[in-house]
TrEMBL record:
Residues binding Zn(2+): H268, H272, E298
GO molecular function: metal ion binding; metallocarboxypeptidase activity
One GO-annotated biological process of the protein: proteolysis
Reaction catalyzed: Release of a C-terminal amino acid with broad specificity, except for -Pro
Protein name as catalogued: Metal-dependent carboxypeptidase
Lineage: Bacteria, Pseudomonadati, Planctomycetota, Planctomycetia, Pirellulales
Keywords: Carboxypeptidase, Hydrolase, Metal-binding, Metalloprotease, Protease, Zinc
Broad EC category: hydrolase
Pfam short name (any one): Peptidase_M32
Claim: Metal-binding is one of the keywords in the record: yes
Active site as annotated: E269
Enzyme Commission no: 3.4.17.19
């Protein structure tokens, strides 16, 4: 047993050292998207590519395989989902996947991702899909090659989905999203037929950027984001990046004439950041100190952004401060009108600014398109037309430009094919978790109205953050809530909030 423990320590030390290199790469990626001069892009791609090759060498080191072979099915794995068992199980799964990927492919894909993101920023700004098409075509081809190298039992998409939502299967996710869609479409129709509309002019008034930054940081800190172990910066597409156990970077983007853009993206990324800050620090770099899945990660960002951040109770606490910071914009606006406006339901073009009821329809469109791109049923050159057709059919609106259409998201430029469905899984998980939190904690609305968010955060830390990767995402949520993945709580939540606003039945 002592020899096994020594082997386990050697394994953990190796992986922790690799994690430091991954953190350095993450920091270079953050710098590229926040601070890098335009002409520094090509060399940054070379730097990140070099690191990717070194990291891949370490992830596929034969000694790693020897250690994992010795530890698998040993007494150290006898307690299911313990920190030790989860570490061995998850590292072995990752190792078996990584050894199937040629170093050449890893490096080429890493370089393409960096160039892809840099090309996307310029192409979107110039509404020029043609400039983006060649690198996207390469990224799709490399994604396809990655899926084939790893292999899959069911659908080709499974191989990529597993990077983001371990053990999930495409057919299962498709069924969940179709069920959700069947419930959302009637709700959106009822809202449209109600004839009620908030005064959205309120949101489009002059909101000075300095005051937006002030209220965003204040709200993020109040709900629990630790600015002594993190920071907030500006970028083209908001994201969260972790470079160490006490170094979590979140970003946002500001619009002086649209209040929700920066405020809710800040809350969203703060939710991601609070998950990172709540992970088990003693296991940092190892599975028990790593997020369970991107679906669970997204549950945390959407929970704080929407279920908490768009609630009447939340603004009962924050609205007086908002009126002080934006006297010209909000001085004559009752809180009920403001609350209605931030919960507007209306089909829109931009996913990150979509309301809660239509948001998942955006995800379903992307899920369908990226499967078609990966399989080859849809050619990259035909993406703008296919995108516009789906938006016309499923949302009733047609993007006037590619910048507001297929160029709006950074994900495909970053090679993140397989990522999008985790957003909807996160929405479903968030509602399930919040229902359970209400049952366990009592009057959360009263706490929010009093500016008390720590009770909920503590509950999330204990039940969601601290377990890390000891369980797959869906199992973690099922263990906490007592039920498998179920979109019913999300629909109940939406109807309970939107029903009174739009005069429809709960």
């Amino acid at each position: 047993m002592a020899d096994l423990q020594q082997t386990f320590e050697q394994l953990c030390n190796h992986v922790r050292e690799t994690a430091k290199l991954e953190n350095i790469s993450s920091l270079l990626g953050w710098d590229e998207r926040v601070m890098l001069p335009e002409r520094g892009g090509e060399y940054r791609a070379d730097q990140i590519t070099l690191l990717a090759g070194i990291i891949h060498d370490r992830n596929t080191d034969p000694q790693l395989g020897v250690w994992l072979e010795e530890l698998s099915d040993s007494p150290l794995t006898e307690e299911p989902h313990s920190e030790t068992e989860a570490t061995i199980r998850r590292l072995r799964s990752d190792y078996l996947k990584q050894v199937k990927l040629p170093k050449r492919l890893v490096e080429e894909f890493s370089h393409a991702r960096v160039i892809g993101q840099q090309t996307w920023v310029k192409a979107r700004a110039e509404n020029n899909f043609g400039a983006f098409e060649p690198i996207l075509d390469k990224i799709v081809s490399l994604s396809r090659e990655t899926a084939e190298a790893i292999g899959y039992d069911g659908e080709q998409y499974d191989a990529l989905l597993d990077f983001y939502e371990p053990e999930a299967k495409t057919d299962q996710v498709r069924e969940v999203l179709e069920t959700l869609k069947d419930q959302l479409v009637p709700l959106v129709a009822e809202i449209k037929e109600s004839g009620r509309r908030p005064n959205m002019e309120i949101m489009k008034r002059d909101y000075p950027l300095a005051a937006q930054e002030q209220i965003g940081k204040m709200a993020a800190a109040k709900i629990g984001f630790d600015f002594t172990a993190g920071r907030l910066d500006v970028t083209h597409h908001p994201f969260c990046s972790t470079s160490g156990p006490h170094d979590c970077r979140i970003t946002t983007r500001y619009d002086e004439n649209f209040f929700p853009s920066a405020f809710f993206s800040t809350l969203h990324e703060a939710g991601h950041g609070m998950y990172e800050q709540g992970l088990n620090e003693s296991w940092f770099g190892l599975p028990p100190g790593t997020s369970a899945s991107l679906g669970v990660h997204e549950s945390q960002s959407r929970l704080w952004e929407n279920i908490v951040g768009r609630s009447y109770a939340f603004w009962s606490h924050f609205y007086p401060e908002a009126k002080k910071l934006f006297p010209a914009a909000l001085g004559d606006v009752p809180m009920s009108d403001f609350h209605f406006a931030i919960n507007e339901v209306s089909p829109s073009l931009i996913r990150v600014e979509a309301d809660e009821a239509t948001y998942n329809l955006h995800i379903i469109i992307r899920f369908e398109l990226e499967q078609a791109l990966l399989s080859g049923d849809l050619q990259v050159k035909d993406l703008p037309g296919a995108w516009n057709e789906k938006y016309t059919q499923q949302m009733g609106i047609t993007p006037p430009t590619d910048a507001d259409g297929c160029l709006q998201d950074v994900h495909w430029s970053a090679g993140l094919i397989g990522y999008f469905p985790t957003y909807s899984l996160g929405n479903i998980y968030s509602a399930q978790l919040m229902e359970q939190a209400h049952e366990d904690l009592g009057d959360l609305e009263g706490m929010f109205a009093a500016g008390e968010f720590g009770t909920l955060l503590t509950w999330l830390r204990e039940n969601v953050h601290q377990p890390g990767q000891r369980f797959p995402g869906s199992q973690l949520v099922e263990d906490v809530c007592g039920d498998p993945i179920d979109s019913a709580p999300l629909i109940r939540y939406l109807r309970a909030k939107l029903g009174p606003l739009y005069g429809i039945q709960h």
